[in-house]
Amino acid sequence: MVIHACNFAANNGNGVESSLGNTVDATGNWWGDAAGPTAPAGDGVSANVNYTPFLTTPVGLGYGSPALSVAGSPRRQPVGVRRLSETRLPQIP
């Protein structure tokens, strides 16, 4: 599984969890802390989640939302992604 360009923040527990033991490529994401998912304010990751390099600022939302890219073989049982949270756009008057 591949997850890139997402904002993970304010989850209770890990932002990404590999529940089947397969390696998840979660590089290039914002983890709620500039020091990454292992920092005190960062959304954590379980074992078998590759998170480096990570973003030091949130993904800019502009007119869209963060991209979630999931890649894998349909013949295999997918790795469970426990929590995904996205930043909400401010209301424009």
Task: Give a structural overview.
This protein has 93 residues and is mostly loops. Helices cover 0% and strands 10% of the residues. The chain is built from no helices and 4 strands. The strands form 2 sheets. A two-stranded parallel sheet has the order 1-3. A two-stranded parallel ribbon has the order 2-4. It is globular and about 30 Å long. The N and C termini lie far apart (39 Å). Mean pLDDT is 74; it is low at 63-91.
| Number of helical elements | 0
- Indicate the proportion of strand residues: 5-15%
Based on the structure, what is the oligomeric state of the protein chains?
Answer: single chain
Q: Mean pLDDT across all residues, rounded?
A: 74
Topology:
Blueprint: E1 14-16, E2 24-25, E3 44-45, E4 49-50
Parallel strand pairs: 1-3, 2-4
Short summary:
By secondary structure, the protein is mostly loops.
List keywords for this structure.
93 residues, little secondary structure
